[in-house]
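Hey, resending since the last one bounced:
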Amino acid sequence: MSLRQYQSDLVAEVIAAFNGGSRTVVMQLGTGGGKTHTAASLIEYAVVRGHRVLFLAHLDTLVGDTHARLKRAGVRAGFIQAGRPVDAEAHVHVASLQTLWAREERPPADLVILDECHRVMGASVKAIVDAYPEAWILGLTATPQRGDGKPLGAVFGRLITGPSNRWLTEHGHLVPCDVLAPTAFNERALVDDPIEAYVKHTAGRRAIVFAASVAHARACAVSFGAAGYPAGLMLGDTPRDERELLRLAMADGGVRVLVGVGVFLEGFDLPSIEVVVLARPFTVTGAFLQATGRGLRPSPETGKAGCTVLDLRGSVHLHGLPDEERRWSLTGSACVRVETMTSFRRCTECMAIFRPARVCPRCGAEHDAVEKIPRVLRRVEALERLKDVPQHKRDSAYIWRLVTIGQRRMRMSSERAHAFALREFRRRFAREPERTP
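The structure tokens again:
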């Protein structure tokens, strides 16, 4: 099986980790970097050495895609999925997680691969992992961060990361990405209508839309069609055959826009997508990167030059640009922004969000590079009094302000708001808050 060099390096690192005594390993590789293809090479390696492999996916599309890749690689694989034939003699089984759980089938396996393992804390998934106490467990994900923002260290002991999105973009494995957004995160409403934003900035290009609800998705699909842009609706209960027809129609150009809620977040591989419309807020970094990553795959067949993200709530201000350098971890903060930008620039001509620069990288408009001097809101005496306040009280006040923002403006639960506050504190000050003496 042909691999890129960074994919070969990941395979070698995973094998070395297992041989070195690690039993539970996460392999991280950004959306579009080729996780499934890399995993197929690992499966081939295991089968050649007489090992049995179980590949688990929670999405039907991932089950079929993985099986097709293994077949092309000459690996005999069977299905464990409703409506698929069973091959009891196969050394590899590609299984739908729901089917495996419902049938209570546990085929023998020396290597268990969990696709999109950031969902691993579900009770059914953890039970299946526990059912293979002697097997190697490999998790695959672009974003090793649970939906509540926590890391995966409770299940996995070793993390192996691939190259960053920026490196993949610079080397041509992903396309450049422009983000158009408001000046700040808007927790109350969209700053523009999805159809109007699409027509204004990206009319006619293939797009996917992340709606806020099923009702919102249906309304958007109707509005896009009425505006002259054939739109398809793909929801969680859309049948497998219908999803494939919509995918083919999108690839052929008969459908220009696909609208959904969360169905595109994982396992949706359509390289011709040029526009990602975020018509809902994304408060967790992993979900934000999964969404924007849907448009980053190259598509030489269509001449795709890049991707445009229409971020209608300004979630980019919470998480940073899609190609920003990040550090992933299985403990502590799951995702830490490495870059130390104090703010973004926003082009007044095209609304693009970009790193501080005089010239907009999207439209070339020039901006005033002179830094503004902030207004003085308090007298100097206030600064003197602040020195008398203990550091732990200042830290506590800052954190509680963030908690309040999380709960009142972002509609977070108390637990998520506290996690958000600590994450933002660490990102802002690069340290842990001081505790009460």
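The longest strand covers residues 136-141.

Sorry for the duplicate.
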